Structure prediction request, 120 residues.
Amino acid sequence: QVQLVESGGGLVQPGGSLKLSCAASGFAVSSAFMYWYRQAPEKERELVAAISSSSGTTSYADAVKGRFTISRDNAKNTVYLQMNMLKPEDTAVYYCRAIWTMRSTQFQYWGQGTQVTVSS
Prediction:
């Protein structure tokens, strides 16, 4: 059974840091494209960061470039999002997403999300 479980969210002051985790089961994160999205109140869900399956190439939204880092630990089957220099506009529910293709069939799954609130 495929499952993605996010954790690590919380309340942090502007300029602070948080590290989100996305623990995967039922598949290998090294074999999937892994993504972090976020959705702020009354806004559409947006892509924040991505890491490719084989090479581990990363990419970021302009709004977080230089502040956020996506990474993965294959042994723990977990993907992380290190968030530094947080701003109030980073406040959102953060979601993990996995996409992979097997035998010409695409699979995609979402986690349940974790709330990040940046406020003084």
Q: What stands out?
A: The first strand starts at residue 3 and ends at 7.
